Amino acid sequence: MEISVEPVLVTAEAAQARIEPGAAIRALDRVRGMVGTDALAVLMRPGPGTCEPVARVLQGALAAADRLGAPAGVCVVVGGEVGDGEPVTRVRRQAHGLATWITTETTRIRVELQVPALRVVQGGHGSEEALR
Description:
- The chain is an alpha+beta fold.
- It has helices at 21-31, 36-44, 52-67, and strands at residues 2-5, 9-17, 76-84, 88-93, 99-104, 107-114, 118-123, 126-131.
- 27% of the residues lie in helices and 41% in strands.
- Helix 2 packs antiparallel against helix 3 (52-67).
């Protein structure tokens, strides 16, 4: 999972999620505009709205925001992107020592969080990041 941080945007991406692109798009549309904790609860709740691959990417973005000093309760899901992922190729073993190659198509999922602007505060032991 890749994580990038811009001044007020935290982005997390999974390049090989095993989910249909349509399901991932519906899940992202469902949580767009929600606070991070609420969005995670919607995606992890048992039932028809569950979408664990998107929830894992969102958890990665929330963890990156938390490392910057922005708790999940102040981060807002502002967008995301779903596209074709990297194909996964693996070996399927068969009887009598034979094997075949299996290629599985995957989905690339990116989630963007808006976090409060961060500023650097000079302290006694170097600099710390704090919420403005």
